Amino acid sequence: MEQIKNIFAVCEKTAPVSVIIPALNAGDDLAACLRSLSDGVDCGLIREGILADGGSSDQTEDIARAAGLRVVRSRRGRGLQLRAGADIATGEWLLFLHADTVLDSGWIKSVKGSLGDPKRFSVFRLRFRDRGLAPAIVARGAMARTKLLSLPFGDQGLLISRLLYKQSGGYQPLALFEDVEFIERLTSVYGKRSLRIMKATASTSASRYKERGYLHQVGKNALRLVRYKSGADIERLAAEY
Q1: What is the pTM of this model?
Q2: Is residue 241 pLDDT above 80, yes or no?
């Protein structure tokens, strides 16, 4: 197991933000994600870290506990896991992050600047941890989708007040596209202007794109989204993913 200090042991109980991370066999990426959050603990921004585990068989839970996170177990499925983590969170604000996401410098200022209005929710700018033209183009495409359609995906994180999360019904227990469903529900009720794009960047793993090819993966993602919008069975889409 990769060595990691007990980052969340010094969290202030009056801090505003609970960080919720869904994970499944995320041992290779989780430590880097948690280290990027350590300054948020030190400055009194982060109240607690919660790992919602979907049945990992690797070192994921050990790394989380060593870092001082609370661990909650749920059935596999990101929607289920996100919901399980949010159910035990105590912060006034909830920051949902994927386990393979690393927040770049400047994220604390962006998050603090987004805590004012509990009726608005925020996401990060997206970058892939890979060099070259392809990852840059895909990331720009994701940001264009976010700006034009108000439709960010989960790898951009989500900062939302616990009040708004509860009032809106939160994440639904979907096997896939739980992020799309939740964002569309929020913007349909509160308007697209309720979505804010923070200046800070979330850097996410490009392993799936590198393994399958950027063009191939983008095409598959787009096709799945179209099928989801057309009413395709979520469980079948998730099994294909």
Answers
A1: 0.95
A2: no
